[in-house]
Amino acid sequence: MKNIIHVLLQRGFVDQMTSDELKMRCDRPLKVYIGFDPTADSLHLGNLLGLVALSWFQKFGHTPVALLGGATGRIGDPSGKSQERPLLSEAALSHNISCLGQFLKKILHFKEGPTPVILNNESWLNSFSFIDFLRDVGKHFRIGQMLGKESVRARMQSEDGLSFTEFSYQVLQAYDFYYLHQKQDIVLQLGGSDQWGNITAGVELNRRLGGDPIYGLTFPLLTRSDGKKFGKSEEGAIWLSPEKLSPYQFYQHLFRMSDADVIRMLKMLTFIDLQEIEEIEREMGRSSYVPNTAQKRLAAEVTYFVHGQEGLLAAERVSDGVAPGSESTLNAEALSRLVHDMPHALLEADQVVGKKFVDIALLVGLTPSKSEAVRLIQNGGAYLNNERISDTAFLFRSEDLIEGEFLLLSAGKKKRVLVQIKKILI
User: Fold this and answer.
1) DSSP-assigned states of every residue in 243-301
2) What's the predicted TM-score (pTM) here?
3) What mean pLDDT is predicted for residues 208-235?
């Protein structure tokens, strides 16, 4: 079997490494970790690369470790941020840590390789007094080096500047790496490219304290071809938790991937063999290619990894059953089973009947504005109950309600909203 670093390089997964020696070190089993601060009660799509990376390492016989930042989450990492994060209450942090811990236990339940480990840095950082930490850890850091970190320079040049609290974050993360190496024999830390400064600070601290060699590897941030972060959408973060974003909605975000991005995401977010991905890319250039085939494969693979077989089946059931042009019969019984798996709105019948399609499209979030709804109709992308709407002045009638209970609005083939009616006009 190939070396894990070679595989990650082939898939565009490596941004920087602290030393080329890491390739040789990976020829024998090691422990590798990545940290997740509890800034929310769910991880998002941007965090998925770290989870995929841990899974890759495990496939090659290495032990994956996920570190929850129960202590560092009280401060907030300034890396990649233009202003200071709002400090969370103890109750919010406790809730977030619990939710993330449960999610990580579920998603890190890999079927092959060494058993994953989940740790929380509050179990060792909370034992330090402020004076002891300054004396025992802080003295090994040099201000000049800390100021030279890209994350620090960028924030110091910003309008809000950088607080001492945030400035100290890299010291805490560096100590985490040193501690994990000493107590857990972890020799590799992973992170996004914005974590390079924090990771190298840990490598340097370990060197100063005479530890055996440890290493860092960063991967590119998940961005679209236009430079925007792929972990965010017009509606906000693309959450991994099914409580915050249904498997169907998660699936649809991936299904809406542009052709310019889909091959790169297949390489980075899935475990599909590279030869198969190259064949998919060649197929996309042929006249016989069915549009969105690559996107459908991406959505299926990633949804399965995050939400399991049950989540994928639910997402595909909704996608197939309510697709514009679908031959599936739309009835109240079928739609009632889908209402919690897709974007939906609850309205009174008199809020809908006699109202324009463009008004309701805005009200339920199908389009961001009435003008967008008008353009959607003019461009042939507006559907009501899987039938195209061509009149920009279209008014809803009582007979448009499916068995008096539902309306299915669609913008093209990739965005749908199910409207449930609370009260029927008599």
Assistant:
1) TTS-HHHHHHHHHT--HHHHHHHHHHH----HHHHHHHHHHHTSTTPPTTHHHHHHHHH
2) 0.81
3) 83
